[in-house]
Amino acid sequence: NAQLATAGLDRSVRLWNPSTGALQSSLAGHTDIVTGVGFVSNGYVVSSDTNGVLRLWQATSGAPQGNPTSHNSSILKLAIAPSRDQVAIGDTEGKVTLRLMPTGAVAGSWSAHSTEVTSVAYSTDGTQLVSGGYDGAVKIWNTATRALVRTLDSGANPILCVAYRGNRVAAGDTSGTVRLWDADTGTLLNTLNAHTDLAQAVTFSPNGLYVATGGADGYVRLWNVSDGTMVRELPNHTFGVTQLRFLAADALAVADGEGMLRVYEIPTGTLIGQVQPLNGWINAIDVSDDGQWIVLGGDEGVAMVRRTSLFNRPPNVPELIAPADNATLSRTPTFRIRAMDPDSNPVRVDVELDLNGQRTLLQSNFVPSGTTIDISV
Fold it and tell me: Do 162 and 183 contact (CB within 8 A), yes or no?
């Protein structure tokens, strides 16, 4: 049976039955912002927070496993090895630490950057790790020896996100620029003017043909890895794009600062599903190996959703019944609107008025799909 886990302002984790809405259990969660989540070996989910705490959860039930593991500084980023038996941690002291899963034992730790490590990502085979720092550096490391393989020419702006697929590395910075390198030679292949604000998320498609970027400007852009040309643009993520993750070669998950998770078909850009598992910023996404479960971590805690049972289609565009187009309105008009949802979920209508430069937002209650709603000023 599908379960939905959500987290409240107290950052506790609650398990719900999505069919009945019944609360099944409530678990003590993180006491600070969750900065990383992921599926690891032996059927567990690991999560990290800015207090430097690692927690394990049973993926099937959401029950906590063992005692939390304390890291020696605030954790900013967590990456899961392809083998699922190791994680890489980037922290506020500029260190990268490798921990074995599910025990949490330290496999290695070293000073990687002169300031905070803002992002880490494993290579496809797990033998290398790329790190990005607020010092503007992008570095590739050998995960077995912890030796520096090479430093990439990344400019001076602080790095916010990195990705590694095949022999390609991508990194986004505070200027909105995303760079692509050949990981084997360190050659800079493309410099993408990807966003007009912070480049906060980057990920490669499973087949390595595309790289997706997300920015604080609210845009997701899809690029050809081979020549750096833009393939598709997905706008209107009002609260900024915070995380990206391919669920499959043709499905891209996009998280934002409002706690929304949307899934788009690639490369057409068609929105095929959305859900809001958290309120507030989403800092991390991981997908189970079978592609059926998605775990998220953010400002409110941890949430886990079943992909096939919980994603629904977006509501239809509301139908304005009255007043008629181009009608002259009184100062206190009433709007009659019919709202429909393709999955028969409850709907809510927002009407924004601009009265001589003064904006007013009118909002209905949630009502059954197909209901005609009267909204008055």
Answer: no
**pLDDT above 70 coverage of the chain, percent:** 90
- Distance between CA 326 and CA 215 in Å, rounded? 37
Q: In this predicted model, what pLDDT tens digit does every residue of 153-201 receive, in sequence order? A: 998 999 999 999 999 999 999 999 999 999 999 999 999 999 999 999 9
Segment holding 372, helix H or strand E: strand 372-376
Compute the C-alpha angle 367/372/373, nearest 5°: 70
Name the nearest CA neighbour of 65 among 56, 77, 74, 73: 56
Distance from C-alpha of 3 to C-alpha of 136, rounded to nearest angstrom: 41
Q: CA-to-CA distance for 280 and 283, rounded, in angstroms?
A: 10
* Buried-state track 20-40, b at ≥16 Cβ within 10 A, e below 16: eeeeeeebebbebbbbbbbbb
Query: What are the φ/ψ torsions at residue 41 (nearest 5 degrees)?
Result: -65, 160
What are the E-state strand segments in 101-250? 106-111, 117-122, 128-133, 138-142, 148-152, 159-165, 168-173, 177-182, 188-193, 199-204, 210-215, 220-224, 230-234, 241-248
Q: Shortest CA distance to 294 belongs to which of 276, 271, 314, 313?
A: 276
Structure-token pair, residue 330: 């009184």
Contact status, residue 233 vs residue 210, Cβ threshold 8 Å: no
Quickly tell me which residue has 């095929």 as its tokens: 272
Residue 309, token pair as written in the block: 């049972």
- Which residue ranges in the chain fall short of pLDDT 50? 1-10, 15-21, 23-27, 309-310
Alpha carbons 298 and 313: distance in angstroms, whole number:
23
C-alpha–C-alpha distance, residues 279 and 300, integer Å: 7
Tokens representing residue 361 in the block: 């937002």
Helices (H) and strands (E) counted in the chain, each on its own, are 1, 35
Q: In this predicted model, what pLDDT tens digit does every residue of 60-119 receive, in sequence order?
A: 777 788 889 999 999 999 999 999 999 999 999 999 999 999 999 999 999 999 999 999
